[in-house]
Amino acid sequence: MNHIYICLTLMLGLAVQTVPATASDLSGLLQEVRRFSAADNAVNKEREQLFGSDVRQQETLLRQSVRRLENAETEQSRLKTLFDANDQKLAETEALIQQRSGQLGEVFGVAREKAGELRSVLDDSLTSAEYPQRSGTLAFADSKRVPTTEDLENLWYQLQLEMTASGEIKRFNSLVTANDGSSEMRSVVRFGLFGAATEQGDFLNWDVSQQTLTVLPTQPEDGAELLHEYLAEGGNVTLDPTRGQLFMLLDRAPKLMERVHQGGNVGYLILALGAAGLLVALLQMSMMLLNEMRVRNQLRNPAQLSPDNALGRVLLTVKAENLTPEQRELKVDEAILQELPALERGQSFVRLLAAVAPLLGLLGTVIGMIATFQSITLFGTSDPKLMAGGISQALMTTVLGLVVAIPLLFCHSYLAARGRRLTQILQERSLGLLAEAESPAVAEVTTRAA
Predict the structure, then answer these.
(1) Which of 142, 166, 190 is the last residue in one of the domains?
(2) Fewer CB near the last or first residue (10 Å), C or N of the chain?
(3) Nearest to 396 by CA among 363, 354, 355
(4) Residue 411 and residue 281: Cα distance in Å, rounded?
(5) What's the CA gap between 343 and 30, in Å, rounded?
(6) Per-residue pLDDT tens digits of the chain, which is 450 residues long
């Protein structure tokens, strides 16, 4: 406000100096200054009133907070006194209970301990599917109160029921969870404490966390047929003495294709070469069998030589020309040599693949061990699963190499034996033909000498 008065005074002085002022102008200016001063005074009074109201409100809140603090301290003192009294009363009551129970206190402690152990057994037992929520009758195991006669009778009854159920084969209806997550009531057959299955042939597992029966993702082989036969006529049935643990491992066992995939690229290469070798061996075997059939037909008809078989072609080569015995022998050797490539075709390729397959398996083993040692270098030996991939590749490539090499060796041995047999037949028949051709000449020379 002082600044405003100063500014107005300066403006008034300048106006007086520059312009001759009249009485009316000075009166209007004075009224304007008074009006501004009155407005500023009103604003200041309003601000003072608001400040005063805020001060009174803060004082009221402070008084309320002080009263609440006093009440809280009073309540704290009361609760502390009550807690001390209850604690003392509880100690006196426990001492009285211990005094009155005497030696029974140890009995009650043993009962609570056995009830706790039995409750965990019941939660893990297949019989809980037939008698759900029965472990709730053993709730006194976690309580400090004195077990009642009913509690002790429930403990005895549940022990007796579990022992009796362990030797029963019983049918009942229970909620079963399928592999897709859906649940429905189904008829279940329980075989003691060892296993359970539906009447449709699905073996079940007891899920301890959900307290429900679930269908095993992988069913044992011939298990459903044996179960149907047992339910219809009696007999043998597949059971898991480990209460489902072995059946659960069936799902973790890798299939044949999973084993093949563990071999990696080297395994695929070994299988491709093995397939190529077997294909060549089968084709050559078929050709060998066809040649043998034709040669046998030729042996049954020695007078009619046919060029569709090796023996016929060799004999036709010998008989086609009028040759001396030495020339006939050379012609026979030449004809047999011409037939050998067709008889031995593919044998060298099969033998090569039989030798290469184990070497590729060894290569895959080395690659797998390198991967294993890299895993050990990066992650250590704390988790064996990190090393399982390299070890699986090392072992599977070795297996695939041997699996491919062994049949190829048998195929090569078979082809070589059949080829030698055909070659022997060609040589025997050709030599026989030469002997027949030479016999007239020998007889003529003998006659002339006589």
Answers:
(1) 166
(2) C
(3) 363
(4) 6
(5) 139
(6) 444 545 555 555 544 444 444 566 677 777 877 888 888 888 888 888 888 888 888 888 898 999 999 999 999 999 999 999 999 988 888 777 766 666 666 777 788 888 888 888 888 888 888 888 787 888 888 877 778 888 888 888 888 888 888 888 888 888 888 877 788 888 888 888 877 888 777 888 888 888 888 887 777 766 666 676 666 666 677 777 776 667 666 666 667 777 777 777 888 888 888 889 889 888 888 887 877 777 777 677 766 766 767 766 777 766 655 666 666 667 776 777 777 777 777 788 888 888 888 888 888 888 888 877 777 777 776 666 666 667 777 788 888 888 899 989 998 888 888 878 877 777 777 666 666 655 544 333 333 333
Phi, psi of 306 (to 5 degrees): -120, 140
DSSP assignment of 299-339 equals HH-TTS--TTSHHHHHHHHHHTS---HHHHHHHHHHHHHHH
Which one, of 392, 388, 411, 390, lies nearest residue 400 by Cα? 392
Residue from 214, 202, 231 nearest 178 by CA: 214
User: Phi/psi of residue 183, each to 5°?
Assistant: -125, 145
Domain annotation covers residue 193:
yes
Residue 107: domain span: 102-166
Q: Which of 176, 209, 195 is nearest to 247 (CA)?
A: 195
Domain boundary among 221, 253, 285: 253
Q: How far is Cα of residue 303 from the mean position of the Cα atoms in its chain?
A: 71
Give every CB contact of residue 325 below 8 A, 6+ residues apart in sequence. Answer: 434, 437, 438, 441
> Residue 196 and residue 237: Cα distance in Å, rounded?
11
